[in-house]
Specification:
alpha+beta; eight-stranded parallel barrel; six-stranded antiparallel sheet; 13 helices; 20% helix
Length: 624
């Protein structure tokens, strides 16, 4: 894969002159095509007296993708065409391309695939007089946490804080909670004002719904100052229908497309379009997007959405190639001493800390074994937990195995590269209803619209054993925004109601009688995880015994490394349980959640101890 020359692509301002450039393969001047750019100051865009100004681009043939269109437009200080217009003044301008073709006429409203900024709706943008962000002095010392140390928190910016400026105010809150990494749902440009972001139409900037590139750089900087890594959710296997490489060629009525088309799975065919990784321009475009977000925004890694849409096997040209090339790009930039890339350098002989996270739900174990991905989403834990919540204690064994990531690799060495491997652990994420909904829902809407159903927050205590198991498990634990105070939104399994309805965080839940105890529990659990290396990095052992434990709704597992040992016991039933256990090592065991009278003194090895486990709760005993 090759990096595209972004310095000559998109809208690039130099001393008040803005250079526009884009590749449009198969769209040549020799065939009678004319390409123009329409530009208007953002202050003028809704005023009928001030139409956009239009400039014709020049065609050339530029390797390696062929037909290239470009023009340089002087803007700063130039007089407006209509008196009173903001043209020529500093500020944000919106623009779009047109193609006039002898067969189909003029096609308007074609956005720029290489735009760094976006306007309202389907418009590209640039800022005249843009002042680059100045990173804090401490940014050069930031180091991305090791994979095993990550504690993730998934965020939808629109729901978490409404925009980037408000969201950055919560960095100290997340750090105080015990979080050291956030995974942000797609920031890329989409066509709608309310949207999850999984049908992108622009890839090289931050959607105007959230702010601009300066705002996101500041968010990353402040997160790093609080010890929080930033992972961005990216969507490369499909696009929205207004993505210019689909939109333009469809309206030109071309029989083929130089960028888009069937490649692997096609899960979004009803409302999105697949990208064709057999094409050089497609592969290089997304490789360049990865480099851009790493270089310009200093992010710590990627969550790759819907990997099956561009998965053609471990030796293919799609997903596997992209994560390999991104890994090698990172190594090369570290070796070259490029500023800020050292954040991924953990030291001599240690693996890169760049996060490359697959959403390959069809075969999560396989994507870890066969690619340069170092972590993956997996729904096995969520599925087993949901079954237990619905009363199936027979699935406790499945839950115990999933919490230990049985069947997943811990490490792979490929081409001399040592790559640690793990999977995420969650019982909530953006794709599923809040876990409370499994215990019962009600609907406060007098019209009975099912979109407004909610989980019963009076049952908050039933969440506790799941959270204890989750946050003591093997892998990377992840919380979904608001999970820490028992957020209770319902989410349908399909339909526009999933993505077109904002579900803002209800911060008042933090203070109420259902939210406070969950916040307190999660803070304690994350403190334990941070302080105990063997819980983050050690061995997991599941005591799979139906007769002693699971039939009573109890699940036991141990985390240990050498002389460090922790027993985790959780009770999913409505009844307090007393269960037998034989600790493998003698000594004093402190109960990590409450201590005091719950501590176990002078425990003898392999002698039966009766343990009391309260209903819908748990205990954590650690050898001291």
């Amino acid at each position: 894969m090759n990096l595209m020359p972004l310095g000559s692509l998109g809208a690039v301002e130099t001393h008040g002159m803005v250079a526009f450039g884009l590749w449009l393969p198969w769209v040549s001047a020799a065939d009678g095509n004319v390409v123009t750019v329409k530009i208007i100051h953002e202050a003028d865009q809704f005023l009928q007296a001030f139409p956009a100004r239009e400039f014709q681009l020049t065609h050339s043939v530029r390797p390696p993708y062929g037909d290239f269109w470009s023009v340089t437009v002087p803007i700063a200080g130039t007089p407006p065409a209509v008196p009173g217009s903001a043209w020529g003044n500093p500020g944000r301008y919106v623009y779009r391309y047109t193609i006039t073709n002898p067969s189909v006429g003029t096609l308007d409203w074609i956005i720029d695939p290489f735009a760094r900024e976006f306007g309202v709706g389907k418009q590209s943008a640039f800022t005249l007089g843009y002042e680059p962000y100045v990173w804090s002095a401490g940014e050069a010392q930031w180091r991305t946490p090791a994979l095993a140390d990550l504690i993730l928190y998934e965020v939808n910016i629109a729901e978490f804080g409404s925009d980037l400026n408000r969201a950055l105010g919560f960095a100290s809150y997340l750090a105080d909670l015990g979080i050291n990494a956030i995974e942000i749902m797609p920031l890329s440009n989409v066509g709608n004002s309310v949207d999850w972001g999984y049908l992108p139409i622009g890839y090289f900037g931050v959607d105007e719904r959230f702010g601009n590139r300066w705002d996101f750089q500041q968010l990353v900087d402040i997160c790093h100052q609080h010890g929080i890594a930033v992972i961005v959710d990216v969507v490369y296997g499909h696009t929205g229908v207004d993505f210019p490489y689909y939109d333009a060629y469809t309206r030109l009525r071309y029989r083929d497309n130089p960028f888009m088309g069937p490649f692997a799975k096609d899960y979004f065919s009803n409302f999105g379009k697949s990208t064709d990784f057999n094409r050089d321009i497609t592969r290089d475009f997304f490789f360049t997007a990865n480099h851009h977000w790493l270089e310009v925004y200093h992010i710590d890694g990627f969550r790759y959405d819907c990997v099956p849409n561009y998965w053609d096997g471990p030796m293919g040209v799609g997903y596997a190639s992209l994560v390999y090339e991104t890994h090698q790009l990172t190594k090369a930039n570290i070796a070259a001493g490029r500023p800020y890339w050292s954040r991924f350098d953990a030291g001599a002989g240690k693996p890169l800390t760049l996060v490359q996270m697959a959403e390959q739900l069809e075969a999560p174990e396989d994507v870890l074994r066969s690619t340069y991905s170092n972590c993956t989403w997996q729904n096995g834990t969520h599925g087993a937990a949901r079954a237990v919540a619905h009363g199936d204690h027979g699935r406790l064994a499945d839950l115990g195995l999933q919490l230990g990531l049985f069947g997943y690799p811990d490490r792979e060495t490929v081409n001399g590269d040592d790559i640690p491997k793990t999977a995420l652990q969650y019982v909530e994420n953006h794709d599923h209803e809040r876990f409370l909904c499994n215990f019962g829902t009600s609907n406060p809407d007098e019209a009975g619209n099912p979109l407004f159903a909610e989980g019963d927050r009076t049952l908050w205590y039933m969440l506790q054993p799941y959270l204890i198991g989750l946050l003591m498990s093997k892998g990377i634990p992840m919380l979904w925004q608001g999970e820490e105070f028992a957020e209770n939104y319902f989410l349908p399994d399909f339909g526009m109601g999933r993505v077109s309805l904002l579900r803002p965080m209800r911060w008042d839940f933090f203070y109420d009688e259902s939210g406070r105890p969950i916040v307190s529990l999660i803070r304690r659990l994350l403190r334990i995880r941070r302080e105990r290396d063997h819980i983050r990095q050690g061995t997991y052992f599941f005591f799979n015994d139906w007769d002693r434990y699971q039939q009573f709704g109890v699940l036991l597992f141990a985390r240990y490394a050498g002389a460090q040992y922790t027993l985790v016991a959780v009770n999913f039933s409505d009844t307090d349980r007393t269960i037998p256990f034989w600790f493998p090592m003698a000594g004093d065991y402190v109960e990590e959640l409450h201590g005091g009278a719950l501590d176990l003194r002078n425990v003898l090895s392999l002698r039966q101890v009766d343990l009391d486990i309260p209903s819908h709760y748990g205990r954590i005993w650690t050898l001291m």
